[in-house]
């Protein structure tokens, strides 16, 4: 994230002082830290923009997360906000609904997980269907895992050629939008079982 912001600043000839960061120090981000950040955001930038960088956003307490919501909705002219986190888990849904996710170094285009392929290959039997359904409905998956599972379904021989385009569109929707991946996966598990 730091190299991206550095490139952005260099590209627009803006000094490093235009970055207001809350680096990951291993501690929870309390509301006082967010209030300081918001105070900085209310001051007009001396250049075209200023960047607010919050590393490991899952460290936000509930109060500090809620205090940021208005800032995420209306950052103000010249304010760019970057939030980083290893995954979406631990981040409030209300924050996730106000941001555009960018997945960096994920395996969204990687080969499907062999475990998913194995689950899918055994659904012709009753116990195979039970194993698939049990796994899907009892596991908390990350977005990348949902996409991986959908890709495994796409590469299987469990859907028709007509359904392949619809599934491809659904994978794209999950990847690029705030579509809930669980509902999409549930839909396709229903189709194949």
Describe this structure in words.
- The structure is a single chain.
- With 193 residues, this protein is mostly helical.
- The chain has two domains: 2-96, Rossmann fold (3-Layer(aba) Sandwich), CATH 3.40.50; 114-192.
- The chain is 52% helix and 7% strand.
- It has nine helices and three strands.
- The chain has a three-stranded parallel beta sheet, covered by helices on one side.
- α2 links the parallel β1 (19-22) and β2 (50-54).
- The longest helix is centred in the C-terminal third of the chain and has 16 residues, at 161-176.
Blueprint (SSEs and pairs):
Blueprint: H1 2-11, E1 19-22, H2 31-42, E2 50-54, H3 62-73, E3 79-83, H4 93-96, H5 114-121, H6 126-138, H7 143-155, H8 161-176, H9 181-192
Parallel strand pairs: 1-2, 2-3
Helix pairs in contact: 2-3, 7-8, 7-9
> What would CATH call the class of the largest domain?
Alpha Beta
Number of helices: 9
Rounded to the nearest angstrom, the distance between the terminal CA atoms is: 42 Å
Residue share in helix: 40-55%
Round the mean pLDDT to the nearest integer and report it.
83
Q: Which strand order do you get reading across the main beta sheet?
A: 1-2-3
Q: What profile does the largest beta sheet have?
A: 3 strands, parallel
Query: Could you name the CATH homologous superfamily of the largest domain?
Result: P-loop containing nucleotide triphosphate hydrolases
- Could you give the order of the helices and strands? HEHEHEHHHHHH
CATH topology of the largest domain, which one? Rossmann fold
CATH architecture call of the largest domain: 3-Layer(aba) Sandwich
Hey, roughly how much beta strand do the residues contain? 5-15%
Shape: elongated
Unreliable parts: none
Number of domains: 2
Number of strands: 3
Rg, Å, rounded: 21 Å
Structural class: mainly alpha
């Amino acid at each position: 994230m730091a190299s991206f912001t550095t490139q952005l600043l260099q590209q627009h000839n803006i000094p490093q002082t235009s970055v207001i960061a809350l680096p990951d120090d291993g501690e929870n981000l309390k509301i006082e830290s967010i209030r300081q950040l918001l105070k900085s955001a209310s001051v007009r930038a001396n250049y075209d923009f200023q960047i607010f960088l919050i590393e490991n956003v899952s460290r936000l307490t509930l109060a500090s997360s809620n205090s940021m919501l208005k800032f995420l909705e209306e950052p103000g002219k010249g304010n760019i906000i970057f939030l980083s986190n290893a995954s979406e888990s631990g981040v409030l849904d209300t924050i996730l609904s106000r941001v555009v996710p960018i997945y960096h170094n994920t395996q969204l285009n990687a080969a499907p997980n062999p475990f998913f392929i194995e689950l899918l290959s055994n659904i012709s039997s009753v116990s195979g269907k039970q194993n698939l359904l049990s796994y899907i409905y009892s596991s908390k998956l990350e977005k990348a895992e949902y996409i991986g599972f959908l890709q495994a379904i796409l590469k299987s021989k469990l859907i028709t050629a007509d359904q392949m385009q619809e599934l491809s569109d659904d994978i794209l929707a999950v990847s690029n939008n705030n579509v809930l991946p669980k509902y999409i996966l549930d839909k396709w598990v229903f189709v194949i079982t």
